Amino acid sequence: MPLPVVAIVGRPNVGKSTLFNRLVGKKLALVDDRPGVTRDRREGDATLLGLEFKLIDTAGFEDEDAQSLPGRMRQQTEAAALSADVALYLFDSRAGVTPLDETIAQWLRSLDTVVIPVANKAEGKAGETGIIEAYALGLGDPIPFSAEHGEGLVDLFEALRPHIEREEEYPDEPEDPFADGPLKLAIVGRPNAGKSTLVNKMLGEERMITGPEAGITRDSITIDWQWKDRDVRLIDTAGLRRRAKVEDKLERLSAADTRHAVDFAEVVVLLLDATRGLEAQDLRIASDVIEEGRALMIAINKWDVAENPSGLLNGIRGALEEGLAQVKGLPVITVSAFTGRGIDQLLETAFAIREEWSKRVSTGQLNRWFERALEANPPPAPGGKRIKLRYITQARTRPPTFILFGNRVDELPESYRRYLVNGIRKELGFGGVPVRLTMRASKNPFGNK
């Protein structure tokens, strides 16, 4: 389905091409202080905080004879506005509303196209009078904006979203673009946890040297392999001890190589020794993996010789919940590198959490959840001053990263941030993968007035 179309219209030299360049992310349109630089329509694919649409930059609208060059340019602008889903009517708030602005507004009111008035050059206080004057144009509330500095993007997003977001363009469960690529799976853990033995069992051959001595593996070894016709890039790593205990230069290099392997991986398996349980060093390794944004799962090896397995499993899960507050619900799998027990379940889980780690949620679905979350538990009002959270967008995947826009977000308590992150995991299907949430204040220059 074609993208929604948004046209930028306005008189000459109000900043249309500057806005066009900002939204398409490239300097495609020439920009100069002289009026009339843009003559033909220019199109580009634009993205605004998750919204995608086709953007049209138009020539400055001038009230001239239709046969003249300015008149022919105006015809191009009129055609663009008529074919668009939304017209952004840009005016110079510092210059105020001119007679030509009033003419353009009158023409726009006669169209079926949705019109959003945008008060450009509104940084500082110089544009306040022009914004007040614009209410008389009969096009609704003008959006204070600065195409030059990018201020007002939040307000523009909120105004555009109801008119151009279409559910069929944003399926609830977007396909994982990495689903057909090899799963990059790293096995990490303390020395002698059985990492190389597990890799050998997976491969069905003695590919890695193993033995009772700790620290046999020194380099991270990458092996391309297939499991049930699915490609896996398996990475065996050197054991990680507490840094304070690492004195040998070669062991320091091996540890650095392991950390590099974690950076390369998509999913990291932290292998525990069932005969030793969960130790402080395991939590440090897990925390480092999460900090790097990798999808993490726990595998408890030597399960075939574990004592009191039920109590051990519950104890490890409880310690993980307490010791890794930044991620809840990590997958915990029991395996035996000696017998091969649990290896299929480990790999099935690894593919599943990679899918969660790579998932993108549509802006519409995300903000519907966000509105429900705010309604169920509104943000606090420290000092009696209300914190206004405006909307949320997913900035990236792998790991899933979200940006929350609002006013006074720097005063939002950590407990409320955890409430939102846990809601994202639970309600939007991100399970135990690391979720990053960044706060960003809305840059509306009139937001506090």
How many E-type strands?
15
Give me the number of helical elements.
12
What share of residues is helical?
Answer: 25-40%
| Termini separation | 41 Å
Radius of gyration: 28 Å
CATH topology of the largest domain: Rossmann fold
Biggest sheet architecture: 6 strands, mixed
CATH class of the largest domain reads Alpha Beta
Q: Mean pLDDT, nearest integer? A: 81
Question: Would you list the SSEs in sequence order as H and E?
Answer: EHEEHEHEHEHEHEEHEHEHEHHEEHE
**What CATH architecture of the largest domain would you give?**
3-Layer(aba) Sandwich
Tally the structural domains. 3
Shape: elongated
Quickly give the structural class.
alpha/beta
CATH superfamily of the largest domain: P-loop containing nucleotide triphosphate hydrolases
Residue fraction in strands = 15-25%
Helix and strand layout, with pairings?
Elements lengths: L4 E5 L6 H9 L17 E7 L2 E7 L11 H15 L2 E7 L6 H11 L4 E7 L7 H7 L8 E2 L8 H12 L18 E7 L5 H9 L17 E7 L2 E7 L12 H16 L2 E7 L6 H12 L3 E7 L7 H15 L8 E3 L8 H15 L5 H14 L11 E9 L4 E7 L6 H15 L7 E6 L8
Parallel strand pairs: 1-3, 1-4, 4-5, 5-6, 7-9, 7-10, 10-11, 11-12, 14-15
Antiparallel strand pairs: 2-3, 8-9, 13-14
Give the gist of this structure.
The protein folds into 3 domains: 5-169, P-loop containing nucleotide triphosphate hydrolases (Rossmann fold); 183-357, Rossmann fold; 363-441, 2-Layer Sandwich (GMP Synthetase, Chain A, domain 3).
What can you see in these coordinates?
It contains twelve helices and 15 strands. The protein is an alpha/beta fold. The chain has three domains: 5-169, 3-Layer(aba) Sandwich (Rossmann fold), CATH 3.40.50.300; 183-357, 3-Layer(aba) Sandwich (Rossmann fold), CATH 3.40.50.300; 363-441, K homology (KH) domain (GMP Synthetase, Chain A, domain 3), CATH 3.30.300. Mean pLDDT is 81; it is low at 28-40, 65-71, 167-177, 208-219, 243-254 and 444-449.
